[in-house]
Here is the input.
Amino acid sequence: MKTLKDIPCGQIVKVKNLSGEKALKRRIMDMGITKGTDLFVRKIAPLGDPIEINVRGYELTIRKEDANIIEVESAV
Amino acid sequence: MKIALAGNPNSGKTTLFNTLTGSNQHVGNWPGVTVEKKDGTLRRNMGETVIIQDLPGIYSLSPYTLEEIITRKYLISDRPDAIINIVDASNIERNLYLTTQILEVGIPVVIALNMIDIVQKKGDIIDIEKMSEKLGVPVLEMSALKVVGETEVVRAALLAAKSGKCPTPITFSPETENVLREISELIKDYVSPQTLRFCSIKLFEHDGKTRLELPDAVKLQIEDLVYKFEDKAGDDSDSVIINERYNYISRITEECVILPHKGELTVSDKIDKIVTSRVLALPIFAAVMFLVYYLSISTIGGLMTDWVNETLFGEIVPNGIGAFLERIGTAEWLNALILDGIVAGVGAVLGFIPQMLMLFLFLTLLEDCGYMSRIAFILDRIFKKFGLSGKSFIPILIGTGCGVPGILASRTIESESDRRMTIITTTFIPCSAKLPIIALIAGTFFPRSAFVAPSAYFIGMAAIIVSGVMLKKTKPFKGASAPFVMELPAYHPPKPSAVLRTTLNRGAEFVQRAGTIILLASVIIWFLSNHSFSFRVSDVADSMLAVIGGGLAPLFAPVGWGKWEAVVAALTGIIAKENIVGTMGVLYNKTGIETAFTPLAAYSFLLFNLLCAPCLAACGTVAQEMKSRKWTAFALGYQCGFAYIVAFIAYQLGRFFSGTGFGVGTVAALVLVWAMLMMLFRKGEKKWRQS
Here is the structure.
């Protein structure tokens, strides 16, 4: 299972599924990361965490441990 | 008539609020500037009194953080007559997500597409007529910053409020609608018709914060319905709702929004390529911080402050006032009160205005351009280690201006224990009112050292980190780690007039304090230091102040300044920190401060006053934010205890290393250092994640 945490900088992926604890999952989905959304991994912070992604046309930063609940597949 | 401004964080609500009401609420380009609700009266006469309500930004009506709860509570319970939903047009999809929820609360809605100028400049096209038709509410273009279209928005909102016509909520998939209909049937006798839709959806989503008085049988029936639905759908009910909302938005934006330049690098992206890059991010951050404090404290601000202190308030003003008083022939005691009390006290504080203004100017620039959130992004990793969140840096940076908004800014932090930690540690960073103390001690006792003044910031930062590490290992702070989710706003060049206005406003508050609290305190200090307990004019040594301070002085002998003057100065710092300088100005007006302290004792005095409990205003804010006497007492007690220990260690070890003495104090200091190291490096309680 590939999650957003493992995606290198500069790649576009599609959200396949979200798991994890309810409040965290809800928070992440509220920000627009829902099934089928394209995510562009723009940057990894200088110290390796958090990461910056482009989702629905804006920039969002989340920690890798939280990105781990976002299962992704390569975008077509 | 009450109209509420609701929308995502950083979408421009407060900018619009300021334009509409003529207020001067603080704005900035980062999510979470507004953490309290504020109301004001519409300036423009529209035939009746219109109250405009500014609300903290919110991503969803299922709130997480404190300021989001405020907004939801207001919209649901206080029920304004209309809502102006401000939508950042340059980030339309996520902004419309909240819109789909606002359409459900049963209040007339008008949508203001803000920052339309940015969209147009980029060449993007939004068909507002089609969008208005799809959403079933008026959609208007606006630029709050450029003051375009805001009158039309208000007019539309008034019209909507008068018509009382509530928008039609969006329709979910047939399966979802079936369950929602059944829930509505079950609860329709318990809630008002306006909130029926909203409550049904919230119950469907298992939203625990919807406190409805429902019979247990009904609750069970609803739970049963939802569980059956979830089984069939193979997903949580709230996830289903969120998915459907975003799908609905995608359908609208596909029809109404054309983005010809999608995927191209924006100016912000290009700036970020450098500013948050792997190699350059940290050096740039360090350089920015150094420049801010170097320019405001040491160079431009410092030079001007020297002139104001030494020439203006050292010679020109006292000589001028003295000559004037002599000419009109006032009583001698009045001369003394004015010159030795007021001019010495207030002047000592006012002298730091240039440094203060420079610092405020840089802070405002940092807040306005969009760099704030980038700092949180760059530093989160480090702060996480210390039991803080990357967002903790924002309160700390704001705290260098003033601790009160700094502490308030902690509201955007998701985790309760991270937030408490941030509240306790934010005031360790020197605020602008502590700046005069730093400058006074550094300038008087260490005139040739360039490091003493910056060391204050370094020590503040170190105190935050050390406290974070130590406290995080104790039980009350163990808590679950909360997610760190933050939007990075687009950079925009700060508007000079707005920056200037904010800077001057902050400066004016400082002057106002000098003219009120500091003035009063200076008069009181002068009186108490010139009169004995029998209210006769007396020598300073027999004065009331000397007796009060003298009683407490032995307590501070181990930290090197067990003299009544110093103790009194520190005490008056509780009222306002710049008061310390004002008090010293009055008490050492004749003798001069240089002879009163050894440099080491002066530094210990500085350390204690930097780290101990903040001024009354900030203490009050701590109490308000902690909402618990126990936690407030802990915060203030910890700060004072920590300050005393640090000053003690510095003074005792400083004496030892400079060869002036080895004794019980040295041993005690070494024991304390050892204990602190133990606290820092012991194995902490294991962190756990909520599951």
Summary: The mean pLDDT of chain A is 91. Residues 21 and 57 of chain A are 26 Å apart (CA to CA). Strands of chain A lie at 12-18, 38-44, 51-55, 58-62, 70-74.
